[in-house]
Amino acid sequence: MTDAEKPWVEHLEEIRRRILVSLGFLAGFFIIGLVMYKSLIRILTWPLQHLSTSLYFTSPEEGFMVMLKVALFFAFFATFPILLWQFWQFVRPGLTDQERGGLFVMFVIATALFLFGSLFCYFLVLPTALKFLLSFGSTEFRPLLSVGKYSSFVGFMILAFGISFNLPILLIGLAQAGIVTTAWLRHQRKFVILGIFILAAILTPSPDVVSQLMMALPLFLLFEITVLVTAWLEKQKGLDSHFKEVI
Length: 247
Description:
The protein contains 9 helices and 2 strands, in the order H-H-E-H-H-E-H-H-H-H-H.
C-alpha cells in the first residue's frame, strides 16, 4: 500500500465504522420502539381523537406488522440527529477552528429544523389533513381506517416534514461551497417554487391538496429566509476579504 492510498483506506474504514455505529443506534431504538409500542400507538392516534373514528386491522398479521412498522418509524426518527452527528464527526478533523464552529452551528440548526418540521406536522398538519380527508364521509359511507395504512400515512408524513425542513441547510451549504449564490437563488425563485410543490407532492403520502400546501408553504418561507441568510453570509465574506486586503 502506497502513502497516497493509505488516507483513502483510512477514510473508507472510518465511513464504515460510522455507518455501523448508526446502524447500531437504529437497531437499539427499534428495540426500544418495540417495548414502547403501545405508547407509540397512542401518540400516533392522537390526531384522530376529535374525529370520532376508530382504527381496525383487516388481516390476522396486520396488528403484528404495524408493531414492527411503528417501531421502525420511531427508530428512524430517533436516529436522524445521530446520523447528522456522525457526519459532523467525520468531517470535523479536516476543518479549521472557524469552519468547525460554523459546521457545528449547522448541525444544531439541522437537528432543530428536523424536530420543528416533525412537530409542525404532528400538531398542525395531521389534524387538519385528517379532518379534511375524513369530511368526505357521509351517512351512506363511513370511513373505516386500516391501522396499517394509517400508521404508514402518519409515519411518512412526520419523517417527510422533518427531513424536508432541512432544505435551508442544504442550500446554505451549497452557497458556502460557492456552488450557488444569492443572486442565482433569487433569479431561480419561480423554479424553486415549482420544485417545492413537486417535492411536496412526492413526499406527502396523501394526494390531497391540503397536505401538499401545508408542506409547500413553510418550505417556501424557509427558502426566503435562506436567501436572506446567504445574502448576509456573502456580505460577511466580502467584509472579511476587504479587511484582509487592508491589513
